[in-house]
Design brief:
79% of the residues lie in helices and 0% in strands. With 211 residues, the chain is mainly α.
Length: 211
């Protein structure tokens, strides 16, 4: 069940500049290399953060074992709860941020190296993303699930990030015309979807905390 439960958090990972960046990159001059490098950078950082969080959580109280036993398991669930509350507040506070980051102006002339760094930093260390990845790794550890259960979450996140690239591959100029509309919609509404997913996962964590 944990594998299914964490999948919706992929939506939280891509909300905001994380999905806006690949839309810009998909219409850049070197769009194939740039988009691929961005997704590869994201894959590396997400896997790294989830893996580290899982290893730490598993050593402390994974599945009711580890150094702290059942107490550690409850602490892990508590940590996930606090992290998700932070993510909910952060997402709500940033809902009306209309001015794009300065680095977005560089995306039309981006290089693969810049795109890789951007994907690595945005998906690995953006506040809501690092909190979400840590929550996934910690939640799996607390449940005593294998780290392989995170694969679905990582792959779904990467698939959504690659959607602009795949759209241009399949639809060509029609995709390039539609992507700005998608970008504007995501910019206005993605925070609502993210909040709904975070609240759903908070309920799941509370159920574990309260037995």
């Amino acid at each position: 069940m944990s594998l299914v439960q964490i999948l919706p958090l992929a939506v939280v990972m891509i909300a905001g500049p994380q999905i806006l960046a690949p839309i810009f990159l998909a219409t850049s001059e070197n769009w194939r290399a740039n988009s691929t490098a961005y997704v590869f950078g994201a894959a590396l950082s997400i896997s790294l953060v989830v893996g580290i969080a899982y290893l730490i959580g598993n050593s402390l109280g994974g599945g009711g074992g580890g150094l702290l036993g059942p107490t550690g398991q409850q602490l892990l669930y508590g940590a996930v709860f606090v992290l998700l509350l932070y993510a909910a507040v952060e997402t709500y506070q940033k809902r009306n941020v209309s001015e794009p980051p300065k680095w977005m102006g560089k995306l039309t002339t981006a290089t693969p190296r810049f795109s890789f760094r951007l994907g690595f930093l945005l998906l690995g260390f953006f506040p809501t993303d690092i909190v979400t990845s840590i929550s996934v790794g910690t939640y799996l550890a607390a449940n005593g699930d294998p780290i392989t259960h995170a694969a679905g979450f990582v792959l779904l996140t990467l698939f959504i990030l690659a959607t602009p690239l795949l759209s241009v591959f399949v639809l060509g100029e029609r995709a390039e015309a539609a992507l700005p509309t998608l970008r504007d919609w995501m910019d206005d509404n993605s925070w609502i979807i993210s909040e709904a997913v975070i609240v759903l996962f908070i309920v799941l964590v509370l159920q574990n905390l309260l037995g």
